[in-house]
Design a protein that fits this description.
With 117 residues, the protein is an all-alpha fold. Helices cover 74% and strands 0% of the residues. α1 packs parallel to α2, α2 packs across α4 and α4 crosses α5.
Length: 117
């Protein structure tokens, strides 16, 4: 009995890989084995960087909050400690946005948290 190859499914699988590799440079988008390798690698990087992105944004927010806090005579750690002590629940993303877009509102938050008159 001859061996069955199921050409339709294998052709469809190759087409799917090459379609996802469209836009890659050179053989990475044209040769199946190379495209498959680079597609797998790209998906690994995408998976890793979706998690890495969260870390990088949190670092950016902390840097912005610290810079704005230092302009008002305090530090990031003292500000966050006093916010927590007063049970003010405001996340770093919003604080960083306040610091960048409306410094006077950020100053009011700092004043309230530190108890400055």
């Amino acid at each position: 009995m001859p061996r069955s190859q199921n050409k339709v499914a294998s052709h469809r699988r190759r087409k799917r890989v090459l379609a996802r590799a469209k836009g890659y440079w050179g053989a990475r988008s044209k040769v199946y084995t190379i495209a498959k390798h680079h597609l797998d690698k790209g998906l690994q990087h995408a998976y890793r960087d979706r998690r890495k992105k969260k870390r990088e944004f949190r670092q950016l927010w902390i840097v912005r909050i610290n810079a704005a806090a230092r302009m008002h005579g305090t530090t990031y750690s003292k500000l966050m400690q006093s916010l927590k002590a007063k049970q003010i629940v405001i996340n770093r993303k919003v604080l960083a946005d306040l610091a960048a877009r409306s410094p006077e509102a950020f100053y009011e938050v700092v004043k309230f948290a530190l108890g400055v008159n």
